[in-house]
Amino acid sequence: MASPQSQDADVPQDPPTPAALVKQLVEAALKRGLTVKQVATAILLFSRPPDYSEAAGPEDQALARTFFAGLSQLVVLVKDRQASQSEGGPVRLAWYWWWQGDRLATSGRSDEMERLAAATDIDAAADRIAYVLSLDGEATTI
């Protein structure tokens, strides 16, 4: 007779919920010095505040804060467009960059999404987000 522990090992684990994945990515990003705002259930706005030099005077720092609030980027958790989806099986999710560059300029709907990482690959997603939002070039090469 199998022990309860070995029976548990044979039972497939449920995939993490979208809410759990969002929470994990937020925590990983915070550890990397980013700030995160949850815009919607599965849409996150990551940002890296600028590093204002201590050498600059208070007036220069205030001016810099007015004109440069830092870098930011939207990331969304959606159905993975690159993975095969099994009928009746769990939906495979992925993190996507949500580029909105020319939508405002053209008043059109030219939103574009680019795959960032598989939904469960939290460290890779957080590392890439931190790299894209870095200004110092010291982030790990991806």
Quick description:
With about 140 residues, the protein is α+β, with helices and mostly antiparallel strands. It contains five helices and five strands; from the N terminus they run ααββαββαβα. Strands 1-2-3-4-5 form a five-stranded antiparallel sheet, covered by helices on one side.
Describe the structure.
The chain is α+β, with helices and mostly antiparallel strands and 142 residues long. Helix content is 32%, strand content 25%. It contains 5 helices and 5 strands, in the order H-H-E-E-H-E-E-H-E-H. Strands 1-2-3-4-5 form a 5-stranded antiparallel sheet, with helices on one face. Strand 1 (35-40) and strand 2 (43-48) form a beta hairpin. Helix 2 (18-31) packs across helix 5. The longest helix is centred in the N-terminal third of the chain and has 14 residues, at 18-31. It is elongated and about 60 Å long. The termini are far apart. The mean pLDDT is 78.
Rounded to an integer in angstroms, the radius of gyration calculated over CA atoms is: 20 Å
Structural class comes to: alpha+beta
Largest sheet: 5 strands, antiparallel
Strand order of the main beta sheet, please?
1-2-3-4-5
Proportion in β-strands: 15-25%
Distance between the termini: 48 Å
Instruction: Please write the string of helix (H) and strand (E) elements.
Output: HHEEHEEHEH
Helix content: 25-40%
Strand tally:
5
Taken from the alpha-carbon principal axes, the silhouette is elongated
